[in-house]
Amino acid sequence: MFTFYENCNLVKEASLLMYRFYNQHDFLDLKESISKKSGYNQEIGDMIDLLQEIYEKIMRQVSLPDDLKVLFEPLYEQDNVLCIADSMIMTDYEMLMHKVDRKAIKKRFEEDNGRSFIDGLVNDFLDDPKENDQGIPLTVDELMDKLDQSEMRVKMKWEVLRVYHYYLETVDRLFDVMEPLIAIMEPLYREYAFHFQKFYDFWSRVCTQGTLKEALEHAVKLKIEDSNHITVVPSWMGCNAIAMQAMDAKADTPIVMYIGLFFRDSDFFFHSQKISREEMCSHLKLLSDPSKYAILCRVKDQARYGLQLAKHLNLTTATISHHVNALSNAGLLSLEKDANRVYYRMNKEHLGMLLDQLREDLLES
């Protein structure tokens, strides 16, 4: 079951804006990085220009403090997305949707002794999935052990511990900045919404018609259970991404799917795009990595979950997580959710398209 929620989650949007600011990655940088990729056209370029205009209008009215920067720094060298702030603010289903309520976030932290917060940061490098079923270890010693086993940047390990110890105070500090930021963003989002009507019309239609499951399984190679209730939420600041978040790993848990503005028509879901030379080189670079190549060989005929791959390849689960994320983002792996695990399988369709184009580029005259 799919529901399209037209209003952006402004908590999430504010977090993404702050992430762009602190990591010096505005929309002009985004435009430069994607302008040579397949699927880029004038419509995308115009959309980025509008988003940069919105971004600049917001930043002229706000001054973001330096002391919050560490909450938005990447946790891993190889993963420039996951940060502490995102896990802090997304610890309640209502937070996943749209409501700003620091009291609810604090209450949840106190009720589960920080389980939701820690789960968002360390779940990828649990040694045994059974631990996840029983609850994330939350004593300081156990948490230190988990952090020591991870490939998280050393600086960020200490920051995770610091935030864990001063969580309530950090929530207040973060929301003292985010709430006035959201107050600035909200009227601007209303003002500019008509520019993105094509996006809103498309997602309202596919959610109503019930064709979204097929579209998403084709586009992002994610197997979606019929029991999942998925709410689709637009994302402006995350315009070039699709992100899924759920409160737990149960098969029937509600899922919120944030869809970036670029994904505005069926071309992004049903029509194969010709791979640009830059993307081809990026794909070949991934395939040249022995560990990534070994993962693809391991999952070409049977789906496997992270711990299985880690044991077979003698790698940490954190390393496996980085590798499969890179392969998934490139379209070389498909994802299947079953009970409390995510399984990975080779996306033979995409790999076949890659080989066909490589043959066309290098062997055919």
TrEMBL record:
<keyword id="KW-0804">Transcription</keyword>
<keyword id="KW-0238">DNA-binding</keyword>
<keyword id="KW-0805">Transcription regulation</keyword>
<protein>
    <submittedName>
        <fullName>Metalloregulator ArsR/SmtB family transcription factor</fullName>
    </submittedName>
</protein>
<dbReference type="InterPro" id="IPR036390">
    <property type="entry name" value="WH_DNA-bd_sf"/>
</dbReference>
<dbReference type="InterPro" id="IPR011991">
    <property type="entry name" value="ArsR-like_HTH"/>
</dbReference>
<dbReference type="InterPro" id="IPR036388">
    <property type="entry name" value="WH-like_DNA-bd_sf"/>
</dbReference>
<dbReference type="GO" id="GO:0003700">
    <property type="term" value="F:DNA-binding transcription factor activity"/>
</dbReference>
<dbReference type="InterPro" id="IPR001845">
    <property type="entry name" value="HTH_ArsR_DNA-bd_dom"/>
</dbReference>
<dbReference type="Pfam" id="PF01022">
    <property type="entry name" value="HTH_5"/>
</dbReference>
<feature type="domain" description="HTH arsR-type">
    <location>
        <begin position="272"/>
        <end position="365"/>
    </location>
</feature>
<dbReference type="GO" id="GO:0003677">
    <property type="term" value="F:DNA binding"/>
</dbReference>
<dbReference type="InterPro" id="IPR051081">
    <property type="entry name" value="HTH_MetalResp_TranReg"/>
</dbReference>
